Amino acid sequence: MTTRRVLVSVGSDHHPYDRLVRWVDAFAAQRPDVDVFVQYGTSAAPRHASGAAYLQHSELTRLMDEVDVIVTQGGPTGITESRRHGIKPVVAPRHARLGEHVDDHQRAFARFLGEIGEVILVDTEDASEFTARLSAVLEDVSSVRVDPSADDVAIAASVSHFAELVAALPRHRGAEAEQVLR
């Protein structure tokens, strides 16, 4: 049996994303048959998975070409890069309430992309739900293969939508901002 490979990226935001790193590290401990690499940023380093705080872009894209599954936070760059390398990413967006980001724009963006089938959304605070979804994807990695050339138009539209949402935020506060994100 071929060893499955998973790349996890928390991106370059300065907020730690310890929740995702803990979940992935626990997954790696339970599944030694899966090779898990975590780009963990300012989060605590994983103990069971291999990893690095940050990677050069060339190293990150090399890994994207070599793995079966990519797990990323909800930023547009990680999602776009994953799809550009032929993989529909598993997206676990950061939660502002948990101190993982300044607001919930990642959740809104990832929800939008999940609804149109561009990502596999796992917007949860439940580790077992995350683990179940990742395990299911690993059972059928063909389900996350995409044709990168077919994505150009969809990616441009998604990024444009995200930019519109972000541009509208400074004009709104509180409940109004949440309404804009929906």
From TrEMBL:
The keyword Transferase applies. GO terms for molecular function: hexosyltransferase activity. The lineage of its organism: Bacteria, Bacillati, Actinomycetota, Actinomycetes, Micrococcales. It comes from Phycicoccus endophyticus. InterPro entries: Glyco_trans_28_C (IPR007235). The keyword Transferase applies. Keywords: Transferase. This is Glycosyl transferase family 28. Residues 6-116 form the Glycosyl transferase family 28 C-terminal domain.
